Amino acid sequence: MKSVGTTTPAEMLDLREENQKSVQRVRRQSLKTALIFWSFVGPMIIGLTVFFYIPILWSLILSFADARATLIPAGWVGLGNYRAMLGDPEFIRALVTFTIFAAFIVPTTLLSALGLALLVNSIKFAQGFFRSVFFLPTACSYVLASIVWKMSIFNGSSFGLANTVRHTVGLDPISWISSPNPPWYWLVLVTVRLWLQLGIYMIIFIAGLQEIPRELYEAALVDGARRGWQTFRHITFPMLRNATIAVLLLNVIAAFQAFDEFFNIMSGGNQILARPPLVYLYNIALSDQNYGYGSAGAIILTVIIVIFTLIQGRFLGFGRSE
Amino acid sequence: MAAIVSRSTQSGRPRGPSAWAIIRLVLRYVLLVILALLFLLPFYLIVRNGLAAESEITSPNWTFFPSTLHFENIQELFNDTEVPFLDGMVNSTIIAVLQTAGQILLSALAGYGLARIPYRWSNQVFFAILVTLMIPSAVIFVPTYVIVSYLGWVSTLQGLVVPGVFSGFTTFLFRQFFLGFPRELEEAGRVDGLGYWGVFWRIVVPNSFGIIAALSVITFIASWNAFLWPLVIGQDSSAWTVQVVLSNFLNAQVLNLHELFIGATIAILPLVIIFLFLQRYIVEGYKQSGLKG
Questions:
Q1: Which parts of chain B have pLDDT scores under 70?
Q2: Is the ipTM beyond the 0.90 threshold?
Q3: Of B55, B109, B139, which to mutate for an interface test with A (greatest number of A Cβ within 10 Å)?
């Protein structure tokens, strides 16, 4: 385009008209692009606004309010709900329950999934079959698994499978779920989750194992490394770093959301023994209908989970940049 | 380690695989078979108790194999007016199908828009979607419940289905996939006079079968197996999914174990069938979503 200074007034007028037209064209073009963009992305954004952003915002408002059996604030209590929630021994107990649960489930899942992946990956014949078998529990819901664990395997009566096995070796039956001391219910709660989710984490580890270049092992063997522990320690494990961190944090985040198995296995008077945060929140919001208090709890849990997620992103980000 | 084992047979050692290597391999298979049986045991118990007489479930002399199989337990369950089992199966089917179809459709559209349409604010919109990935929907079930009950959707089909249709995570996965979609294919369509919509439906969707299948299957499984949200919203028994029906049955005063277990058998059957035929896609789906980092 010619610079404006060297043009005659008539030309300038022409140019300005042309400019305006092209501006209009660009504007129309960008309006068209915007319309197409929103026709693709709009429905999702509207949905996330209504069922994600607005709920969180509304809960944030309710958390500063007195709202019992009503969804509209009935009066403001400032930080009262938060103060009460953080001083609520039951809520603290729920967080402790989650911590104990995570302390059990995370290491056992990590080690078992890694071991299972190494074992399955080390065989040639029928590898697919065994992988499928270990992966099959993924199809089962927590509710169904809870039914089997509570009513069949760890049934406190003598006909439960675990007690039947104990009986054959001459031991007395144990009430696995309702005995507070020793806390056998942890065995029930940890094994049910282990069975359900081991397959997924095994798949993540197997995918990681298959990405390790074989040449690394060949080079190590040429350099005199011994097969087994040495190659595992210096090649396999470091190469699985990202998969390990992913499994670890996915596991913690999943444990934080534990609800189904605790709700179903510990029901019938045993809930007090092990009640994780979401079950406690369910009781407050749904049974007591105290939405202000429940909202404060939900906001606190949201903050905690965001911290976990940021840690996860941070670790995985580190892993990738290396 | 697979590499190591297989190499021991071909590493050019004159004696071939050593006795130690063979023993190790045998031990591996023994261990795998034991573990496989342990993993399959719960499935067997569901079916075993579902087809046994009540007395053979609760007998103090519990046996691994029941003496007779009682297929009439199925009839009994469906005839039991106290347990809305059939309604639960129907509800679960409708909800899982609608939720899967809706979530995949809307997420694929949004993912494609974010990946390919050069809109000024595209990055900001993408960021708003990324934020939703930080907070799992289970953690904010109270806030979502507040909105859904404000809308008057408690115990309704839309209350059960609609909130689960919108997934920032599935959108994110589709966007990542479409970013890697071969541009030449799309440009060929553009030359033929197709707009964004035409390119999306005629070229992108037909060439994205793998990821659509993978994400559909895991969405369907998650929806069928979901418990917390259906429990919260299904306050009237007519809106119970099969998971809620069985949970209520489990916690009922009078226990009827053979009916409970035959219900569990029937509830898991669709998923086992899906699993047997579509396992490849399930594995792919979990790899995609498990390794989201």
A1: 1-16, 289-293
A2: no
A3: B139
